[in-house]
Each structure stands twice: as C-alpha cells, then as structure tokens.
C-alpha cells in the first residue's frame, strides 16, 4: 500500500485544553478512511490538520506524494446558493484560476460522475441536502485531487441520499482518489470504508475492519500430491503455509471465503487431496491445531 500522507506524533490544544495527543496515522492511496468519535472528540480538528487548514502544536506531517493535492469539504452546507450547478461551479473554478476550457471539461466530468447532469441548470437553493452536499464535493474537486477530506458528508441525509452519496464516493475511490471522512455512526459506513479510526480522549485507534472478512473465511489444511497443479484452486485460496511432507506429498494451509468453500472442497476431492481440517478463521490458532 502506498502511503500518500503520514502524520507523526501530532498534538493540538485549544486554550490549554488538549484535543489531540501524539497521534500518528497514515493515509494510503485508493483507500477510504473513516474517523469516528463523539461530539467534540477532535475529528474536525484532525481533518483540518490533515488538510493543512489547521496547524498542529507538535508533530510532523509528511506528504509522500510531492504533488499531493487535497480537497476539503467542511461540515456546513450553505443553503441559499441562488446559482445553478453549472454557474456556481464555473464561478468557483474561475476564482481558483482554472482555464475556461479545462474548467468546462471538469464540470462536465463531475456532473457525470455525481449523476447530476439533469440538475445542471436547476437552482441549487431548490436542491435536497444530499444534492447540495454533492455540489460542495464537486466544488472541492474542480481541481484534480489525490485526497478528499469530507467532514460529516452523510449527516442529515435520508437513507436514499446516503446510499447515493456512498455510491458516488465509491466511484471516486475507484477512479483513484483517497478519501478521509468523519462520521458519527459506523453502521452507515459498512459498505464504503476500508479503515475505521476511532478518536477518543485525544488518541486514535483502529477498529477491526468493517468488512470483517476474517469472520467469513475458513481455514483449510489439506495434503495433496506434489505432482498436482494448484492452478485451478488459486482463484479461491490464499496460501498461508506450504511444506513437503515427503517427496510425493505436500501439506498446505489455506484460507478460503465462506462462499467458495464448497467449490474448493469439491476441487480438492477431484484432485484426490486429503482434507485434514476445516475451521472458521476466527477460531484461535491454538484451538485449530489441537484438532489434529
Ligand atoms: N477554533 C477553536 N477554538 C477553540 N476550541 C476549539 C476550536 N475548534 C475546536 N475546538 C474545541 O476542540 C474540541 C474538538 O473539536 P472538533 O470540532 O475537532 O470535534 P469534533 O469531533 O469534530 O466534534 P463534532 O462531532 O461535534 O463536529 C471541542 O471541545 C471544540 O470545542
């Protein structure tokens, strides 16, 4: 994984009150990271520090990409914008000094990826909160970005708007963007984020990945002739360990997704493999080995 920005021992206080204490974290390319925590836990402060909008009292921010270009979208969404998306984005882009031709191409691209072409000429003041949120993100993306920082992008949106925005953020990630966002509720993020960082008492800790693939995988140990090719199995398995028992037989320990387990077992039987053990990966290793 390529790190794009790394924070080392970041601390911040306001009027003598410590908000962040010795926080270290990395943001990787093509990842969506969520910062979760209670009101006032320091999420926005940390976002602003990552985005270069606030300075830490101590610590180092190391940009691993020399041309790291960060877009920042604050929590507050302005409600009274009388322009249409086309007008608003065009004005904002012009203020940022983007050339006309480049700007129009970029607006077209953004309207497409945010699925907003039909609303191009409707006044933003008439938009739903979700659509306004999209406009704010598009504004932050008028310039090419590597990293997008979103403060509470999903808050106040109804379920449909949340899911719509999640889809958009997922396509932005697929197009190469990294995203750091804050959120109160982890359940909103289930299908979206790669990592969740919890901020509490000025410290950041990483929770188990929300995708929790560990719990949906099995570990299989089998013995198979050394002459047999494993090529057919490779799409399903991740090899953890492999050793020769003698010249003819090798033993493998592999993990396989729950849904691929039957296919794997069937393929192993066709290959005259001997299945020694099958257990969910969330069983402790010691328990696993005592089954021999
Ligand atoms: N500019 C500031 N001046 C003084 N205190 C500040 C400032 N910015 C934030 N704080 C304080 O720092 C603490 C952390 O604030 P921050 O906004 O980072 O938390 P948060 O987790 O984003 O909260 P919320 O979920 O309510 O948005 C709070 O106690 C807040 O009052």
TrEMBL record:
A molecular function GO annotation: ATP binding
SUPFAM superfamilies assigned to the protein according to its UniProt record, in alphabetical order: P-loop containing nucleoside triphosphate hydrolases
All copies of domain ABC transporter, residue ranges: 5-226
Domain of life: Bacteria
PROSITE patterns reported in the protein's UniProt record: ABC_TRANSPORTER_2
Pfam family, one: ABC_tran
Family matches, as InterPro entries: AAA+_ATPase, ABC_transporter-like_ATP-bd, ABC_Transporter_VariousFunc, P-loop_NTPase
Key words of the record: ATP-binding, Nucleotide-binding, Transport
Protein's name according to its UniProt entry: ABC-2 type transport system ATP-binding protein
């Amino acid at each position: 994984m390529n790190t794009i920005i790394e924070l080392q021992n970041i601390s911040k206080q306001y009027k003598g009150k410590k908000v962040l204490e010795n926080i270290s974290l990395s943001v990787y390319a093509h990842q969506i990271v969520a910062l979760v925590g209670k009101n006032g836990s320091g999420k926005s402060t940390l976002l602003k520090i990552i985005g270069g909008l606030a300075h830490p009292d101590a610590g180092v921010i190391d940009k691993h990409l020399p041309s790291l270009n960060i877009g920042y979208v604050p929590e507050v969404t302005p409600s009274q914008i009388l322009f249409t998306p086309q007008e608003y984005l065009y004005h904002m882009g012009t203020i940022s000094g983007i050339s006309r031709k480049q700007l129009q191409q970029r607006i077209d691209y953004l309207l497409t990826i945010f699925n907003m072409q039909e609303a191009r000429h409707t006044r933003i003041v008439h938009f739903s909160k979700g659509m306004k949120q999209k406009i704010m993100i598009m504004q932050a993306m008028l310039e090419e970005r590597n990293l997008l920082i979103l403060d509470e992008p999903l808050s106040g949106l109804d379920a449909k708007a949340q899911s719509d925005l999640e889809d958009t953020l997922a396509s932005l990630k697929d197009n190469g963007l990294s995203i750091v966002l804050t959120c109160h509720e982890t359940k909103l993020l289930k299908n979206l984020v790669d990592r969740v960082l919890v901020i509490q008492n000025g410290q950041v800790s990483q929770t188990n990945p929300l995708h929790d693939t560990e719990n949906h995988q099995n570990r299989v140990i089998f013995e198979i002739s050394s002459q047999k090719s494993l090529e057919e199995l490779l799409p399903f398995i991740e090899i953890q360990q492999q050793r020769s028992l003698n010249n003819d037989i090798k033993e493998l320990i592999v993990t396989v997704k729950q849904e691929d387990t039957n296919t794997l077992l069937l393929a192993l039987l066709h290959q005259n493999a001997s299945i020694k053990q099958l257990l969910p990966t969330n069983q402790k290793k010691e328990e696993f080995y005592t089954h021999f």
